[in-house]
Amino acid sequence: MTTQRAEAAAAPAIDIRFGQMGLIQVLIWTTDPGAILDELTGRVATAPKFFQRTAVALDVGPLGREPSAEEMRGVLEAVRRAGMCPVGLASGPAAAQALSQPLDLPLLPPFREFHPPAEALGRAGARRVEAVPAELEPEGAAAQVHTHPVRSGQRTYARGRDLVVTAMVGAGAEVIADGCVHVYGALRGRAVAGARGDAAARVFCQEFHAELVSIAGVFRVFETLPPELAGQPVQAWLDGDVLRFERLGV
Amino acid sequence: MTEIIVVTSGKGGVGKTTTSASMACGLARRGKRVAVIDFDIGLRNLDLIMGCERRVVYDFVNVINGDCTLKQALIKDKRIETLYVLAASQTRDKDALTEEGVRKVLDQLIADGFDYILCDSPAGIEKGAHLAMYFADRAVVVVNPEVSSVRDSDRILGLLSSKTQRSSNGNGGVKEHLLLTRYNPRRVANGEMMSVGDIKEILGLDVIGVVPESPDVLAASNAGVPVILNDDSTAAEAYSDAVARLLGEELPLRFLEEPKRGFFARMFGG
Ligand SMILES: Nc1ncnc2c1ncn2[C@@H]1O[C@H](COP(=O)(O)OP(=O)(O)OP(=O)(O)O)[C@@H](O)[C@H]1O
Ligand SMILES: [Mg+2]
Question: How far is it, in rounded angstroms, from Cα B146 to Cα B193?
């Protein structure tokens, strides 16, 4: 008994690890809390498991102006009420600098530069949720190969390269790559390609039952994935701002 | 050569203890020397199902703490010569089990020449479940034909392939088997429950046995006689088949369809 207590005392109180992979970004197009709450609750409802209590960073860039701290408190409240947990501000826009202190939120660098698609300008609410890119990796690396099933609760990340999984990916599992994701088996979990913003990245799988597919931050959850593709060999790619899906080999 | 088998599931109440007791009996009945260990600290269950609860003097934690020898704590089964039970402790101290302590007990059982050590895991993915699987050579993952149980099993399979001694020392990993329990063919046919095929496909593993839902199981636990010893129960036959498959025999799966009901049963809804 006494030895156990001694062990407990020697154990560190905390551990610090680096890794912001997969942090979700909410782009703010308006500071109208009502509009944000409406749109976000809709999105959170389509993927409750994915968004509830998820850490997100807010990007005020799309506003094109510097919102007041008061306005932003309303925004934060709306985002929280939608079930997400705002943990920081995207450090890109100058406005974020000024807001960091009064809102008591850290600046989270470096984000991918955002180019709003023309047709999306002027729309209310959070338009798009993006993955936060980390620093860049040297190019030309071979794919990372994973030969065992990726099970529920597990996550595999191929940094700066493609990810090839030669087994199944279970529901609740995540396969993430900065390049393409290839699954030679059933894909039941989440596949994230172009995790650092490469819009040319694709997702390929032999048997499509995905919970979520995301490429360069544009994603779709299973409720909105084409049902006729269930069980088929499928590829997904980004066509402008639209995520497209197609049966492979037809 | 001793083989350590963990019976695990993630989800609670799916039939791990029932399975541990029956498979231990089944292996011992075939002449193997078997020790079955209850890892569910605080909730002693295995000894009840094995019918030896009144003979528990020392338990697993007592052995680990050196309060007694392993020999004193092992309870010899009254029915089968080569079967021994190591009961869980009723302590509320969840830290009573340590990796070192568990290793010590397993090493002694190995030195004693046991053929099989069955580890009945507690539910969840916390420490007890972790320690029950950590030293395993094989795993029997018990799953019920419903979504949440299948999902938890997937979770456990992930841990088996990453958080066990075999997965980390490059010994080829833990050999994994699925055992479906509480299978109700009628509800599967109605689409209320998942089929063997669905579960096999989702988890990407072979099935070592399908045990039908049966009132004999509850009767058996109440009587303290593992259900596999009930001579006219389909659950017993299913467990016997599973034991045979564990030993490498190839048998077709049985009890996947609802038994044909006799004329009188149909007439009177019996
Ligand atoms: N094939 C079966 N048919 C009917 N009932 C069953 C069957 N298998 C198990 N049960 C019942 O399910 C309940 C749970 O069984 P058991 O204690 O073996 O599960 P467990 O996984 O060990 O639970 P825990 O997670 O609490 O340790 C018991 O009441 C048992 O009688
Ligand atoms: Mg149990």
Answer: 6
